[in-house]
């Protein structure tokens, strides 16, 4: 038995992982039907999980996200004048996380045999958690909830997209859960996600394609590609509450301005949909 | 300061049903039972709706039947169970372990010894707003119970997991003596996620584990020769040279003892104060029922409607568990299992 963790049944310690040979490329390819200037359809639902204060479920393509919010709930200890916000994002342990190869390059993790033995948050999970936390810190009226804590738990049940596109969906899911939990906020947060290809000055809205690990790690580096997520409070003068940009090229001021504008357009479009859903669910 | 007679009349406090069930679960339960109902508004012998889904899309081979290809998921079998508000997602992954080189030819007849059967190593995670840390008692107990129940159910024979059809990538096929060759077997792990915890969790977790096990497919295995190096960036970002690799597409269905497939059911026993009658409640649900029902009967029934396991906990001067109660419970369980498994 595994001696490192006696609280979980992790099986024999001398087991080695199952390593699969590469899936043949021609078969694993899926056809992308979505035009570049269109936003993917999404399925949203709130209040599915009953033992929390607010929950939301979102499905975009094959990506499935579930968010539960616990709070505001009282905390022990000395008095604090505003609520503590904490966020935890977790993938199902056996899912391969986007950009996983980069995070593994920097850590000394070797091949995983039993996925149940993964206890700490991975770099990707931490990054998503901190992005969501920083977005919602500036949005929630924390001072209205003294001596309490608000905990956001994000569970990624399935992922079939790139990292920033996933973050985009997570933001929407958290916003919906926040409404379901009836936590006082300045506004609802929505975001826009773009991919900018510098060579032909082309913008792909809501890019769903998966990043191939090879592109990021070593050999083939695509020319000028930038991914961007910008989160807004659209009913409060389009205030920006979160900004995440990744890519392998420089970003000029005028291009940045244009990209933020396009993100804002996308954000507004999604906001309309979410508003519609919320009004419908009230009736 | 209010002037008055100082004897302000205290109005009665009225709680909604869901709050009363937390504040005074016994009172809530009693009031409902008096009406012939339960706090969850079901009848005494009414089970919750149950939805089983074994094509959840989590598994590597789920798309294979539809003509699509396999995915890069390491999940070998999976299932999703939804009952009431509770959702249980189970995914089975695997590892490879070296086993002692024993003779494969068994001389005597197989007499059903538990040494010939094995189990899955499950980890249950119940989402209840707890930050990352040690598993709760409930999670640990459930995992251990699942492991042991599956082992003693004799569903998964050890020999089903032994890898005996390894394709060797070597030149000399002439001498095929297995004597000094290592032998390997699969080992299975399960991750069970529970959302919206409610009701008899063991039943759902065990159900999802058994259903997932029925879908498990084991990949074909081959040894690698010296030159064969796979570029596995997803796992550790570098070139690795594993001794054994699995075919990305070819697989075998895991052979299990279908005859021993079984299902667990938990019943609560309460006594309505008016009489001495003990009431059987199916699929306990909600705070009032779970906290007040201290007497429980757990029954496991197999596919052929034979009882495999019976566990009775509790019983006191109020809740009398006699032969009739046990027989009635087993009968209820058999009817239910007949609906689910057959």
Automatic annotation (TrEMBL), chain A:
Q: Which GO terms describe its molecular function?
A: RNA binding
The UniProt entry's GO biological process terms, in alphabetical order, are: exonucleolytic trimming to generate mature 3'-end of 5.8S rRNA from tricistronic rRNA transcript (SSU-rRNA, 5.8S rRNA, LSU-rRNA); nuclear mRNA surveillance; poly(A)-dependent snoRNA 3'-end processing; rRNA catabolic process; TRAMP-dependent tRNA surveillance pathway; U4 snRNA 3'-end processing
Q: Which domain of life is it from?
A: Eukaryota
One GO CC term on file: cytoplasmic exosome (RNase complex)
Entry keywords, A to Z: Cytoplasm, Exosome, Nucleus, RNA-binding, rRNA processing
- Exoribonuclease phosphorolytic domain location is 41-184
Asked if rRNA processing is a keyword of the record, the answer is yes
Q: Where in the cell is it found?
A: Cytoplasm; Nucleus
Read off the PANTHER family from this record.
EXOSOME COMPLEX COMPONENT, EXOSOME COMPLEX COMPONENT MTR3
Family classification: Belongs to the RNase PH family.
The name of this protein is Exoribonuclease phosphorolytic domain-containing protein
TrEMBL record, chain B:
Q: GO cellular-component terms in the record?
A: cytoplasmic exosome (RNase complex); nuclear exosome (RNase complex); nucleolus; nucleoplasm
Q: Which InterPro entries match?
A: ExoRNase_PH_dom1, Exosome_comp_Rrp42_subfam, PNPase/RNase_PH_dom_sf, Ribosomal_Su5_D2-typ_SF
Span of domain Exoribonuclease phosphorolytic: 77-219
Q: Which GO terms describe its molecular function?
A: mRNA 3'-UTR AU-rich region binding
What Pfam families does the record point to? RNase_PH
User: What domain of life?
Assistant: Eukaryota
A GO BP entry: TRAMP-dependent tRNA surveillance pathway
| Primary location class | cytoplasm
Indicate where this protein resides in the cell.
Cytoplasm; Nucleus, Nucleolus
Record key words, sorted:
Cytoplasm, Exosome, Nucleus, RNA-binding, rRNA processing
Q: Which family does it belong to?
A: Belongs to the RNase PH family.
Any idea what this protein is called?
Ribosomal RNA-processing protein 43
Lineage here is: Eukaryota, Fungi, Dikarya, Ascomycota, Saccharomycotina
